[in-house]
């Protein structure tokens, strides 16, 4: 079993790598692996898009959990015939990048003797990689900092549980709007993922472009998300409802909107992924049974606080009660004097703001990408369906279960197919209890 | 002017080539599902992927005969349709939609995962499985031929020819089926499921048959595609393609036999024309590089398709040929 080591590699069956050791500080390895998964998925998604635009590069990172990034290690790249292409040293983040003259096979080697005290290479000190035309080819070296071999299965399970909770709460935040929109208007909104992406992107732009710290940037993004939700409702869905567009037609329209927005975002933002700025350390803090980065902790706290606020609002305030009434029975709500269109507008604004917040939290752990929302959308659907389509609390419960399930499933299945587990769960729910945990039988038709 | 003519020619080639056959077949399958039966299948691309990989895996990995590969692909699509239909066909339309899109995405992620790469080739995919088929061409496939101002390789011509023959045959099949008593039951299910049930028909069974039939047609589309490109890669089967096929279907007219064919030709012409035209405009400096770069153009097609889908459904849900009364988009 290897300890988390050189990264930026392909997502692989890294199960051994996500087991934290007892001593030292483990960085958010799981998060990074998740990020790798998303990033590598993205690379392939863009096939003709960005791939042809760049020259061929070999990249990698040298780091371990205890030593952190390892600076100043010489990395040499040679062609298959043994001619040296270039030799570079890793920077303060442990990263290196070597431009190669073209596609083909290359040998990458590192100087094992210059590694810091206690860090040894597991396996060979050179790797042969094949670089495709126009690709940044990641390469990884197995490094061991001596903290291996002592994480037990239980500890790993608790670690995954905590991380699953974080992920599930994030899905829940994004999905509350999806479920309430379905409940109040009957619309299955396939463009909800784009609300998430737009929130994350907007916050990223405010954060890195205008130099605003992330917390205020996130609040600005939530306001932007609410405005965008309102724009959705006023500019598209309310006129369509007035025209009497059927629900299935509206569903296909939302798919059109999703495609339009997603690829527009890719054109404007590009195919890469970017982190937020000014986050401080990303080292994990040891809490005994599990480790958590401060960012993840903040993410969990914010999620819980916001979700409690949403619940209180739904339960206690007038508009919240009106929302539940409209979701329950629209005609009855209208006839008892509730302004249904106003309620729906508020639902859209709330959904937009929450989705934007979910996007920021997702961007915090996985970086900001043009298709991050769409990736999350299917898990949101899984969560909402599990909880019961159209119910606010169902979305909450279901999403948390899906998040935990997806993370815990990496105990038995490779990391790069963990989303498949979530989607499988969705289908199993549809077989066993299609109305979900909190849904009512009448809704499923 | 020369650029314009060239854009026309390239777009024409795309509208008649195997890509158009691929989308036409996907849309014919969706027509059976959505146009005639009212099933909202958003995972059509999964059927195509299984069809394509059926051939690719059988031939490249297991060393089987090409035609056995075709059979394997068809069986795989039938199995997928049964597995998918069993739990979801009793539910309302949007549940089927969510389940099918989730299945398609899940299968793609599974096929491209590291653990599956021994069978599917992972993100690299598989190649070198279409030799047996291409060698059947009555002309020299190594040569290039000039058709309508564009160059086609012999292989491309052969795949396109066989593909369009397949499209014609399947259109004939759909036409015959839909005027049979069986087809009338399907249309009745689309209009009013409960009424059909009251007449003593097993709605579930009919829906299942429709799902299998349309799925197999989609699988054939995937086969044409992988044979045309000569490689099978899970990332060729993005679920955006399902929505492109929906755009094809709705543009041509749902519940019309020739709707998907006309839709495929028109849509591929339009997006390829936009693609080539925009690239030419960027290269000539008409559109400044800062506004839109050549690499962005590849994404424009999806923006166009998304916009087109929205406008069509809002303003003309019956498409070019359809009958508004028949496109009951509120069916289950």
UniProtKB/TrEMBL annotation, chain A:
<dbReference type="GO" id="GO:0005304">
    <property type="term" value="F:L-valine transmembrane transporter activity"/>
</dbReference>
<feature type="region of interest" description="Disordered">
    <location>
        <begin position="1"/>
        <end position="21"/>
    </location>
</feature>
<dbReference type="GO" id="GO:0015808">
    <property type="term" value="P:L-alanine transport"/>
</dbReference>
<feature type="transmembrane region" description="Helical">
    <location>
        <begin position="376"/>
        <end position="405"/>
    </location>
</feature>
<keyword id="KW-1003">Cell membrane</keyword>
<dbReference type="InterPro" id="IPR001851">
    <property type="entry name" value="ABC_transp_permease"/>
</dbReference>
<dbReference type="InterPro" id="IPR013783">
    <property type="entry name" value="Ig-like_fold"/>
</dbReference>
<dbReference type="GO" id="GO:0015188">
    <property type="term" value="F:L-isoleucine transmembrane transporter activity"/>
</dbReference>
<comment type="similarity">
    <text>Belongs to the binding-protein-dependent transport system permease family. LivHM subfamily.</text>
</comment>
<dbReference type="GO" id="GO:0015190">
    <property type="term" value="F:L-leucine transmembrane transporter activity"/>
</dbReference>
<feature type="transmembrane region" description="Helical">
    <location>
        <begin position="244"/>
        <end position="265"/>
    </location>
</feature>
<feature type="transmembrane region" description="Helical">
    <location>
        <begin position="167"/>
        <end position="190"/>
    </location>
</feature>
<dbReference type="GO" id="GO:0042941">
    <property type="term" value="P:D-alanine transmembrane transport"/>
</dbReference>
<keyword id="KW-1133">Transmembrane helix</keyword>
<dbReference type="InterPro" id="IPR052157">
    <property type="entry name" value="BCAA_transport_permease"/>
</dbReference>
<keyword id="KW-0813">Transport</keyword>
<dbReference type="GO" id="GO:0005886">
    <property type="term" value="C:plasma membrane"/>
</dbReference>
<keyword id="KW-0812">Transmembrane</keyword>
<dbReference type="GO" id="GO:0015192">
    <property type="term" value="F:L-phenylalanine transmembrane transporter activity"/>
</dbReference>
<feature type="transmembrane region" description="Helical">
    <location>
        <begin position="343"/>
        <end position="364"/>
    </location>
</feature>
<feature type="transmembrane region" description="Helical">
    <location>
        <begin position="29"/>
        <end position="47"/>
    </location>
</feature>
<feature type="transmembrane region" description="Helical">
    <location>
        <begin position="296"/>
        <end position="314"/>
    </location>
</feature>
UniProtKB/TrEMBL annotation, chain B:
<feature type="transmembrane region" description="Helical">
    <location>
        <begin position="15"/>
        <end position="32"/>
    </location>
</feature>
<feature type="transmembrane region" description="Helical">
    <location>
        <begin position="298"/>
        <end position="315"/>
    </location>
</feature>
<dbReference type="InterPro" id="IPR043428">
    <property type="entry name" value="LivM-like"/>
</dbReference>
<dbReference type="GO" id="GO:0015658">
    <property type="term" value="F:branched-chain amino acid transmembrane transporter activity"/>
</dbReference>
<keyword id="KW-0812">Transmembrane</keyword>
<feature type="transmembrane region" description="Helical">
    <location>
        <begin position="211"/>
        <end position="231"/>
    </location>
</feature>
<feature type="transmembrane region" description="Helical">
    <location>
        <begin position="39"/>
        <end position="60"/>
    </location>
</feature>
<dbReference type="InterPro" id="IPR001851">
    <property type="entry name" value="ABC_transp_permease"/>
</dbReference>
<protein>
    <submittedName>
        <fullName>Branched-chain amino acid transport system permease protein</fullName>
    </submittedName>
</protein>
<keyword id="KW-1133">Transmembrane helix</keyword>
<feature type="transmembrane region" description="Helical">
    <location>
        <begin position="66"/>
        <end position="86"/>
    </location>
</feature>
<feature type="transmembrane region" description="Helical">
    <location>
        <begin position="243"/>
        <end position="271"/>
    </location>
</feature>
<dbReference type="GO" id="GO:0005886">
    <property type="term" value="C:plasma membrane"/>
</dbReference>
<keyword id="KW-0472">Membrane</keyword>
<keyword id="KW-1003">Cell membrane</keyword>
<dbReference type="Pfam" id="PF02653">
    <property type="entry name" value="BPD_transp_2"/>
</dbReference>
<feature type="transmembrane region" description="Helical">
    <location>
        <begin position="157"/>
        <end position="178"/>
    </location>
</feature>
């Amino acid at each position: 079993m290897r300890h988390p080591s050189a990264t930026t590699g392909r997502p692989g069956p890294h199960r051994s790598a996500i087991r934290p050791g007892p001593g030292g500080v483990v960085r958010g390895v799981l998060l990074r692996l998740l990020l790798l998964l998303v990033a590598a998925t993205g690379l392939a998604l863009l096939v003709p898009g960005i791939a042809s635009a760049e020259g061929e590069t070999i990249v990698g990172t040298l780091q371990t959990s205890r030593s952190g990034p390892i600076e100043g290690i010489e990395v040499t790249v040679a062609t298959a015939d043994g001619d040296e292409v270039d030799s570079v040293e890793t920077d303060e983040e442990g990263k290196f990048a070597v431009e190669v003259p073209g596609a083909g096979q290359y040998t990458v080697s590192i100087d094992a003797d210059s590694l810091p005290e206690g860090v040894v290479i597991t396996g060979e000190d050179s790797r042969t990689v094949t670089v495709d035309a126009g690709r940044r080819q990641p390469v990884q070296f197995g490094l061991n900092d001596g903290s291996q071999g002592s994480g037990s299965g239980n500890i790993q399970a608790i670690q995954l549980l905590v991380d699953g909770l974080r992920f599930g709460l994030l899905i829940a935040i994004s999905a509350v709007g999806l479920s309430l929109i379905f409940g109040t208007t009957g619309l299955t909104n396939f463009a909800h993922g784009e609300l998430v992406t737009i929130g994350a992107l907007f916050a990223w732009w405010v954060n890195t472009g205008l130099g605003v710290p992330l917390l205020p940037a996130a609040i600005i993004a939530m306001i932007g998300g609410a405005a965008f939700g309102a724009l959705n409702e006023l500019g598209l869905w309310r006129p369509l409802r007035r025209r009497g567009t059927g629900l299935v037609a509206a569903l296909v329209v939302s798919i059109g909107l999703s495609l339009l927005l997603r690829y527009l975002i890719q054109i404007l933002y590009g195919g890469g992924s970017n982190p937020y700025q000014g986050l401080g350390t990303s080292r994990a803090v040891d809490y005994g049974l599990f480790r958590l980065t401060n960012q993840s902790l903040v993410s969990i706290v914010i999620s819980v606080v916001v979700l409690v606020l949403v619940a209180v609002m739904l339960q206690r305030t007038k508009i919240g009660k009106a929302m539940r009434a409209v979701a329950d029975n629209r005609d009855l709500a209208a006839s008892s004097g509730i302004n249904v269109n106003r309620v729906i507008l508020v639902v859209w604004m709330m959904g937009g703001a929450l989705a934007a917040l979910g996007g920021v939290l997702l961007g915090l752990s996985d970086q900001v990408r043009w298709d991050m929302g769409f990736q999350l959308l299917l898990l949101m659907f899984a969560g909402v369906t599990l909880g019961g389509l159209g119910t606010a609390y169902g979305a909450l419960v279901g999403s948390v279960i899906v998040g935990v399930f997806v993370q815990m499933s990496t105990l038995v299945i490779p990391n790069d197919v963990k989303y498949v587990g979530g989607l499988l769960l969705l289908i199993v729910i549809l077989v066993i209890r299609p109305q979900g945990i909190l849904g009512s039988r009448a809704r499923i038709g | 002017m020369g650029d314009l003519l060239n854009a026309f020619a390239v777009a024409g080639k795309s509208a008649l080539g195997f890509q158009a056959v691929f989308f036409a077949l996907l849309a014919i399958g969706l027509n059976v599902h959505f146009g005639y039966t009212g099933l909202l299948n958003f995972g059509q691309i999964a059927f195509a992927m299984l069809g394509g990989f059926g051939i690719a895996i059988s031939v490249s990995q297991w060393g089987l005969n090409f035609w056995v590969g075709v059979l394997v692909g068809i069986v795989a699509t039938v199995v997928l349709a049964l597995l998918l239909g069993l739990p979801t066909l009793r539910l309302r339309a949007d549940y089927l939609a969510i389940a099918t899109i989730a299945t398609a995405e899940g299968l793609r992620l599974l096929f491209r995962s590291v653990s599956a790469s021994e069978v599917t080739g992972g993100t690299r995919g598989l190649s070198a499985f279409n030799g047996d088929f291409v060698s059947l061409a009555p002309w020299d496939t190594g040569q290039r031929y000039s058709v309508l101002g564009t160059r086609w390789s012999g292989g491309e011509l052969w795949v396109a020819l066989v593909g369009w023959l397949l499209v014609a045959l399947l259109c004939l099949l759909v036409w015959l089926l839909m005027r049979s008593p069986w087809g009338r039951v399907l249309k009745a299910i689309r209009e009013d499921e409960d009424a059909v049930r009251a007449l003593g028909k097993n709605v579930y069974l009919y829906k299942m048959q429709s799902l299998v039939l349309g799925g197999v047609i989609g699988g054939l589309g995937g086969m044409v595609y992988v044979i045309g490109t000569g490689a099978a890669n899970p990332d060729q089967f993005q679920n955006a393609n399902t929505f492109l096929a929906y755009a094809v279907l709705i543009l041509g007219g749902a519940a019309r036999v020739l709707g998907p064919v006309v839709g495929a030709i028109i849509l591929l012409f339009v997006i390829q024309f936009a693609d080539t035209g925009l690239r030419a405009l960027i290269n000539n400096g008409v559109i400044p590089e800062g506004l839109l770069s050549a690499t962005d153009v590849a994404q424009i097609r999806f923006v166009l398709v998304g916009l087109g889908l929205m406008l069509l459904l809002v303003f003309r849900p019956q498409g070019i040929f359809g009958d508004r009364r028949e496109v009951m988009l509120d069916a289950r």
